[in-house]
């Protein structure tokens, strides 16, 4: 079936598509590992129990108003408090009321960026990009992500002290890509293929390999996992110019809150 692609000015459509893809992304790896996940009509939550906040994430599926906010935060508090781990995050594609009175801390806003289907640039010749289909390559993905983002809570020097992925998540709509210089993994990206969009996540490049087009190339590989679909991502400050060169455009802000685990 040929997907219907909304105009970039259709904020409601892109907010709905991106939030559902994001919610499915956060729960995909924990669900494959039989870790806690919960689905409600207004939000989905996933809890890999990591010491870093971002993977312990809940995603709003619709706008949040002031009246239901206390119950939502209390429900998410109870969900995350029932398992050990670090802080948790709440993602919203819509403006939210002030949640600070419920113990939440505003992490800021990042742009939702969308790219319509189209030609992608070739990767630099020296960069070898492969899809992770086994445990060894997936470990290389984690190394590039944890050291490149960086996720300081999950490494001590060169040694990883935790993982963001798991081999049980291989073989489905969530796909992992690693870029190598020789035998060294230097960049990575993941994609989650939905029915109407492909979400791009976990893009990172080691500091010494930045500024050479490697992050853009591995992002293009993630997009190419479903080239007929529009691509959506939530961009970091460093990533925005990289994605803009690939044809992504900003359509709306995402608001991020976090809270220490009770």
Report the radius of gyration as a whole number of Å.
18 Å
Helix percent band: 25-40%
> What global shape is seen?
globular
- Name given to the CATH homologous superfamily of the largest domain: Gcn5-related N-acetyltransferase (GNAT)
Return residue spans where pLDDT drops below 50 for at least 5 consecutive residues. Answer: none
C-alpha end-to-end distance: 46 Å
CATH class of the largest domain: Alpha Beta
User: What is the CATH topology classification name of the largest domain?
Assistant: Aminopeptidase
How many domains in all?
2
In total, how many beta strands? 13
Mean pLDDT: 96
Within the largest sheet, what's the order of strands?
A: 1-2-3-4-13-5-12-11-10-9-6
Secondary structure class reads alpha+beta
Number of helices: 5
Encode the helix/strand succession as letters.
Answer: HEEEHEEEHEEEEEHEHE
Q: Could you give a short account of the major beta sheet?
A: 11 strands, mixed
Strand content: 25-35%
CATH architecture descriptor name of the largest domain: 3-Layer(aba) Sandwich
Describe the structure.
The chain has 262 residues and is an alpha+beta fold. It has 2 domains: 108 residues, no CATH class; 125 residues, Gcn5-related N-acetyltransferase (GNAT) (Aminopeptidase), CATH 3.40.630. Helices cover 25% and strands 29% of the residues. The protein contains 5 helices and 13 strands. The strands form 2 sheets. An 11-stranded mixed β-sheet has the order 1-2-3-4-13-5-12-11-10-9-6, sandwiched between helices. Strands 7-8 form a two-stranded antiparallel ribbon. The radius of gyration is 18 Å and the shape is globular.
